Structures are given as structure tokens and as C-alpha cells.
Amino acid sequence: MRHSQLHRRLPDGSRRFRSGTCGTAFSLPGLRREPDEEALQIEVRAVSEPFTSSEPAGTVHPW
After folding, report:
1. Number of domains, the chain
2. HEC profile for the chain?
3. Which residue range forms the structural domain that includes residue 20?
4. Segment Disordered: which positions (predicted)?
5. For 5-33, what is each residue's pLDDT tens digit?
């Protein structure tokens, strides 16, 4: 793995890039609820040296 990318899944189904790291931890201060968002959806992908991405691993946090 070269690095990890973290995206937020928005209520309309699109993704917003939030962070990337070569380390093992993320810090995402100040996340706010989007209009019409019932739960925060986060996706993490591993990115390899030739920049291919894994399938996302995700979590959901209800507001």
C-alpha cells in the first residue's frame, strides 16, 4: 500500500475527498452535517504504487 484515501459519501451519492495519509491514522475535525443527511458515511481506500485503488471499506455514523 502506498497510501490511504478517505472520502465522505454525500446524500446525493457523490463522494468528497477529505484526506489522504501514508500513516495509520486520520483526524477529521469539524465535520458538519450536510442538508438532508441522516448519517455520516465515510469510505477508506488503499492505493497501491501504480495508483490503483482497492474497493472501499466504510462506516456509517448516525447524526
Report:
1. 1
2. CCEEEEEEECCCCCEEEEEEECCCCCCCCCCCCCCCCCEEEEEEEEECCCCCECCCEEEEEEC
3. 3-62
4. 1-21
5. 999 999 999 999 999 999 988 888 888 99
